[in-house]
Amino acid sequence: MARRKPPLPRLLLDNVSCMRNAQQILRNVNASIHDGAGLVLSGTNGSGKSTLLRMLAGFNRPTAGQVLWNGHDITDSGVFHQYKLQLNWLSLKDAIKDKFTVLDNVLWYELLEGKQGNSMAAIELMGLGKLAKEKSRMLSMGQRKRLQLARLLAIDRPIWLLDEPSVALDVEGTKLLEYIIHEHRKKGGIVIVATHLPIAMEDAMVLRLPPRFPRLMTFVDMLDRGGPD
Ligand SMILES: Nc1ncnc2c1ncn2[C@@H]1O[C@H](COP(=O)(O)OP(=O)(O)OP(=O)(O)O)[C@@H](O)[C@H]1O
Ligand SMILES: [Mg+2]
């Protein structure tokens, strides 16, 4: 009897390397990520966690190796067009419009997505219900992070790329983050998180990136600085 092939991973990092500003940041990174998986990126400041997330989001291209989605290279423009619709991106740049209310800051993401009806429930789940009609400039740091998380829920895309999602959250906020990650994975969603702070994620894979050290000065640096020191 012919053996069944194991299913393709939803995302495959196949020997991925990345250079930025003539410096090697990522070297031969490999990971197989199936539906429902959690991946934690850890490592010291500057080790390349955000760079890897940016690569998964299509902002940076690998200099070697491939990121495959359903077996297809995400740098292929036809593939990327479909792939980017799977992604939910959260980073320290929160893209919150201060003049909009909390509700509108979530709602316009949902409307752009062609969806409706999720925003208020998401805001309430993240504990911002009473602030929904307030201007967003009133929000504290942690409340702004909760608003970003409410957007993830309102848009509801399968692959979450989260860069330091618990920074500024209080204990209850971190528990909520853990809860929504758990629920998302239970539905088959994928969650990839770069973090220094502990975030409880059952059976998550951990990818520890090695530290990067300052490199020799490049020709471009010399031009910037007007010559070697
Ligand atoms: N826009 C950029 N152009 C060139 N190099 C960059 C750029 N942004 C970051 N780098 C470099 O890439 C390396 C990895 O940075 P990255 O932000 O991915 O690290 P990180 O692991 O996310 O660090 P942190 O824990 O501080 O968030 C660092 O050496 C950094 O100086
Ligand atoms: Mg980072």
TrEMBL record:
Residue span, ABC transporter domain: 11-229
An example Gene Ontology biological process: cytochrome complex assembly
Gene Ontology molecular function terms on file: ATP binding; ATP hydrolysis activity; transmembrane transporter activity
Keyword match Membrane: yes
Keywords associated with the record: ATP-binding, Cytochrome c-type biogenesis, Membrane, Nucleotide-binding, Translocase, Transport
One Pfam family of this chain: ABC_tran
Superkingdom as given in the UniProt entry: Eukaryota
UniProt protein name: Non-intrinsic ABC protein 10
Organism in which the protein naturally occurs: Perilla frutescens var. hirtella (Perilla citriodora)
Lineage, uppermost ranks: Eukaryota, Viridiplantae, Streptophyta, Embryophyta, Tracheophyta
